[in-house]
Design a protein that fits this description.
By secondary structure, the protein is mainly alpha-helical. It is built from eleven helices and two strands, in the order H-H-H-E-E-H-H-H-H-H-H-H-H. It has a two-stranded antiparallel sheet with strand order 1-2.
């Protein structure tokens, strides 16, 4: 562990150490970091220094404090929170195009880089989508799938950019009634579910161009479902297939 410097405020040094540990994956997104008391003992600094460091990381958007539960990692760098703020001023069409580019390139990279563990995570997310009994279950499984897809790209910056643009979260809120019995929605989502499977099949087959094209079809179907909620998604008439 790096030594603390007497020329820099302790709280800033603690924040910097935690920032690096988050970026290095020691504390992944969604995980709970050690308590103030644990960090105080580990780092050998005052509790006030730890508290100030955590407060600065919460303000930066890397952490979120939950009353009575602890402090959780919400991003691996300040990039995602900054992008989220920029989205408020961006055109919806621009945001949708950026998300398409990010997921398409993630699939292309995943087709050459995905490990057996990545594929197992993607398969598990597909299984959870298929087994979903409520809209909430389906939304959770879908978010897991898209996060796993970006992770499988092997590019942490790409994954962070995707998370910063909101990924698919806001689309899910518009198209998936979280309290619905999902059997009622399954006919409408089946083509979209099949499109997700096609993405994973292309990644497993190590076909970057086909994987990228499969993502384009998947997103086109999702947009169709968003435009006409509850109606079966129809495959787009034309689909640009990316080359390898």
């Amino acid at each position: 562990m790096p030594r603390l410097s007497p020329n820099v405020p302790l709280s800033a040094q603690v924040a910097d150490q935690l920032r690096h540990r988050i970026a290095d994956g020691e504390f992944p997104v969604g995980s709970r970091i050690p308590t103030e008391a644990q960090l105080t003992d580990e780092l050998g600094v005052s509790r006030n220094s730890v508290r100030e460091a955590l407060r600065s990381l919460v303000h930066a958007g890397l952490l979120r404090a939950r009353a009575g539960d602890g402090t959780y990692v919400t991003a691996t760098s300040e990039l995602a929170p900054v992008l989220e703020r920029e989205l408020e001023r961006a055109r919806a069409a621009d945001v949708a195009e950026v998300r398409l580019v990010l997921e398409r390139e993630a699939a292309r990279l995943a087709a050459t880089r995905a490990t057996a563990a990545h594929l197992a995570t993607l398969d598990a997310a597909l299984a959870d989508r298929d087994a979903a009994m409520t809209g909430a279950d389906y939304a959770t499984a879908d978010l897991d799938f898209h996060h796993a897809l970006l992770d499988a790209s092997g590019n942490l910056l790409l994954a962070e950019l995707h998370r910063g643009t909101g990924g698919v979260e806001d689309n899910l809120l518009r198209t998936t009634p979280l309290d619905a019995t999902f059997a009622d929605l399954r006919p409408a989502t089946r083509p979209l579910d099949d499109a997700h499977v096609a993405v994973v099949d292309a990644i497993r087959a190590r076909e970057p161009g086909i994987a990228a094209g499969a993502v384009e079809r998947m997103i086109a179907l999702a947009q169709e479902l968003e435009t006409h909620p509850g109606a079966p998604a129809a495959a787009p008439r034309t689909t640009a297939r990316s080359t390898r």
